[in-house]
């Protein structure tokens, strides 16, 4: 493999001149520039990204720690992150924790050893990565994306889940429903906790009673929504509507309702949260709360780049506003005579 010295020797110039031509950071006459470029082409020389990064102390690489899941929400956010990295001239290294603490710490160590310029964290684990690992890289810029409370520091970008839960539940109330169930996410996750609290707030403000058996917690996955909906459908009194605190669980709820021989929304209305791509293709299309996933990814990258340039700036919490999306899974409740 050709080196910069080989290019310099063939072109009859110094290695610093070759560097100036490659990086275009100093004036080089057109004649010399042509000699260098001809030598590069002849030798099929490719500059070493590693060597350049060591010299400039910058790899133009961002690391992202994420928990892989059957929930499409995470994949759609990662898509937005990758697109934004590409547009801004950065590479993205993605590590999947698979919900395992040991793997989370190992993956984090791998990213940091690769000298990433900054780190995005979007894992579903209840605890943050090991302090032992993070303390070895005390000034690494970090942005947390919709995670639980994180004591280490760094910017946080999150959905206003409390407001979103209230919007979803109020929509069902405005449609005339009074017997409303909620399939909540795992309560060690702050977004799940806030969405459930939004449900409680809306029900209480409307003066509606909340049946204890109508509130279930699950895992934000398809199967979790399916099993939780099965439990609701086994009750002697069925809910008129159900707020599933993410769209993946709504998909599972649809299947449970179908297997019971019932129909959405004729027999039971379903409200989701996230507005994943699949939501508009379900039968009927799912009414849900829109989370701006592409915007979340874009904002996370922009905030991380800002943090990389202003490492000592005060930590920020940026909150995205959820929005109601009306489709076909919620009907107007008609009281039987």
Automatic annotation (TrEMBL):
Domain HTH lacI-type: 2-56
Entry's transmembrane regions: none
Keyword flag Transcription: yes
The keyword Transcription regulation is assigned to this record: yes
One Pfam family matching this protein: Peripla_BP_3
InterPro entries reported for this sequence: HTH_LacI (IPR000843), LacI/GalR-like_sensor (IPR046335), Lambda_DNA-bd_dom_sf (IPR010982), Peripla_BP_I (IPR028082), PurR_sensor_dom (IPR057343)
Domain of life per record: Bacteria
Family annotation (NCBIfam families): PRK10423.1
Name the UniProt record assigns to this protein: Ribose operon repressor
Species of origin: Proteus penneri
């Amino acid at each position: 493999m050709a080196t910069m010295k080989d290019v310099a020797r063939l072109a009859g110039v110094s290695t610093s001149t070759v560097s100036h031509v490659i990086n275009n950071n100093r004036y080089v006459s057109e004649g010399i520039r042509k000699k260098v470029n001809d030598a590069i082409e002849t030798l099929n020389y490719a500059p070493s990204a590693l060597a350049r990064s060591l010299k400039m102390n910058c790899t133009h690489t961002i690391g992202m720690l994420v928990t892989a899941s059957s929930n499409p929400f995470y994949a759609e956010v990662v898509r937005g992150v990758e697109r934004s990295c590409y547009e801004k001239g950065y590479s993205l290294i993605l590590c999947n924790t698979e919900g395992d603490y040991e793997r989370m710490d190992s993956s984090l160590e791998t990213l940091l050893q690769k000298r990433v310029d900054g780190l995005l964290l979007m894992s579903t684990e209840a605890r943050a990565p090991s302090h032992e690992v993070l303390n070895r890289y005390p000034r690494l810029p970090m942005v947390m994306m919709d995670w639980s409370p994180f004591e280490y520091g760094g910017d946080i970008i999150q959905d206003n889940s409390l407001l979103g839960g209230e919007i979803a539940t109020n929509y069902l109330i405005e449609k005339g429903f009074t017997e409303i169930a909620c399939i909540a996410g795992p309560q060690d996750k702050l977004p799940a906790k806030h969405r459930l609290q939004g449900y409680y707030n809306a029900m209480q403000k409307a003066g509606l009673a909340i049946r204890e058996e109508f509130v279930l917690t699950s895992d934000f996955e398809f199967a979790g929504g399916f099993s939780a909906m099965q439990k609701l459908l086994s009750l002697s009194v069925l809910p008129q509507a159900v707020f599933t605190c993410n769209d993946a669980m709504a998909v599972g709820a649809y299947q449970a309702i179908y297997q019971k021989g019932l129909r959405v929304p004729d027999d039971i209305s379903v409200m989701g949260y996230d507005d994943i791509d699949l939501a508009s293709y379900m039968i009927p299309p799912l009414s849900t709360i829109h989370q701006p996933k592409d915007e979340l990814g874009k904002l996370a990258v922009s905030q991380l780049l800002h943090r990389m340039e202003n490492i000592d700036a005060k930590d920020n919490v940026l909150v995205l506003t959820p929005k109601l999306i009306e489709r076909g899974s919620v009907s107007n409740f008609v009281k039987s005579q």
